[in-house]
Amino acid sequence: MLSARRNHRILIRKNVACAKASWPTGCSKQLLAALRELTTRFALSVQLGEITLLDGKWYVTHSGLLRLANRNGCRGIRVQPLREFCDAAASRWVFKATVYKSAHSKGFVGFGDAEPSNVSSLVRGAEMRVAETRAVNRALRKAYGIGLC
User: In a 10 Å sphere around its CB, with 0-12 CB exposed, 13-18 middle and 19+ buried, how is residue 85 labelled?
Assistant: First the structure.
């Protein structure tokens, strides 16, 4: 138990140091306090890209959500397109993802959509993958209580 607590304190120090180095002008005392809380609660790493600063707020990335799910024994993620809302010719896609935290879980559902008007020009042509990732991320956030009011 003592070792786990020590490792946790080390991760908090690493996250704070990495955040200050990566975003020297963006890390206020309030943001660093929030980072400490996120680290304490979810044990995610800034250095590994699991948490990033986005528009002045901490954001748990796709890799962070997947690591959290894996660490907590997630039993599976089911993703399916909602064909009635998809139009391949217009690059418009809508997906439904269900995250199962345990073998008997009813699942946590998230939806994701993407089309050329709501994705970055850097990922144009990959709208299907963007929609799928958005759906998975939303379901994972619900399942593990990240970003919920």
Answer: middle
Report pLDDT for 3.
Answer: 81
pTM for this model (two decimals): 0.89
Token code pair at residue 34: 């929030």
**CA 49, CA 61: separation in Å to the nearest integer?**
7
Q: Enter the tokens of residue 18.
A: 């990495």
- The whole-number pLDDT of residue 17 equals 95
Which residues of the chain carry a pLDDT beneath 50? 149
Pairing of strands 57-60, 76-81: unpaired
Write out the H or E segment, with its range, that includes residue 113. Answer: strand 108-114
Question: Helices in the chain by DSSP H: which ranges?
Answer: 2-22, 29-42, 62-71, 127-144
Beta bridge partners of residue 111, listed in sequence order: 96
Which residue shows structure tokens 């901490």?
A: 58
Is residue 110 classed as helix, strand or coil in its secondary structure?
A: strand
DSSP 58-85: EEE-HHHHHHHHHHTT--EEEEEE-GGG
What distances in angstroms separate CA 33 from CA 50, 116, 148, one per listed residue? 17, 37, 18
